[in-house]
Amino acid sequence: MANTKDYHDYVIKDGKFVGAFEEMYQNVEDPWHQTEEAAHSYSRMDTVNSIRRFHLGTVLEAGCGLGHFTNYLQAHCPSSKIIGMDIAPTAIEKAKASFPKLSFIAGNLKDLDAILASHGFAPDGIVFSEIMWYILQDLDVILEKTKKALLSTGGVLLINQVFYHGGQRYGREFFTTQEEMMDYIGWDVLARTRSETADVTSSYETHTVLRPRR
Ligand SMILES: C[S@@+](CC[C@H](N)C(=O)[O-])C[C@H]1O[C@@H](n2cnc3c(N)ncnc32)[C@H](O)[C@@H]1O
């Protein structure tokens, strides 16, 4: 049985990164309310539009969790092949059980090169949907490996990220807004949107499409 411990405690507690994603998925049924959230946001619709607009054939959804957004993308982009990947093997087992027709792989983004080589594919698009705060400790190596993978196909990185009005509390040393995030990454910006979330007073959603420079 799932316990009632708050999923946040496994992720970031008292402003410090915990990162116990596997333990979280073993103990919490639906962290981040993924079952409800998968389709309910502008940035998620924007991701569909970008996959279509940039004609992305093979797309890796990195940090796919329980696979609901992977499933949403595959349903709305039938000409593309969407592959979900997550650091937590339990999340991947659950995603495979929920969506047996889709492809899911377990792996840490910081090992992206080895994962792509062992699974034998090169993505035209890599989606980071609401994962930025959880990969900050390895962000530079992850961006380097993402860049290498995308340069090999001419592909793009699609980032969906919620930011907070009045500034971010966690991860401030990296970026606190969409603009600062784009500056930090330093790639060419092909598209960007910003929309209010349902809770307009505290946060807003962003969708950014970036192409690495050689
Ligand atoms: C907030 S959930 C996002 C789920 C999904 N992408 C969505 O938008 O609904 C963040 C996910 O990132 C995963 N994650 C965190 N660090 C990761 C890493 N280094 N490599 C792959 N996945 C990671 C976590 O296990 C978690 O499932």
What's a quick, concise take on this entry?
The protein has nine helices and nine strands.
Supply the helix-strand structural class.
alpha/beta
The helix content, as a percent range, equals 25-40%
What is the level-2 CATH architecture name? Answer: 3-Layer(aba) Sandwich
User: Order of helices and strands, N to C?
Assistant: HEEHHHEHEHEHEHEHEE
Number of helices: 9
**What is the residue-averaged pLDDT?**
93
Low-confidence spans: none
Work out the radius of gyration.
Answer: 16 Å
Fourth-level CATH superfamily: Vaccinia Virus protein VP39
CATH class reads Alpha Beta
Terminus-to-terminus distance? 49 Å
Enumerate the distinct ligands: S-adenosylmethionine
> Do you know the CATH topology?
Rossmann fold
Q: Work out the strand percent.
A: 15-25%
Give the neighbour order of strands across the main sheet.
Answer: 5-4-3-6-7-9-8
Largest sheet: 7 strands, mixed
Number of strand segments: 9
Instruction: Label the overall shape.
Output: globular
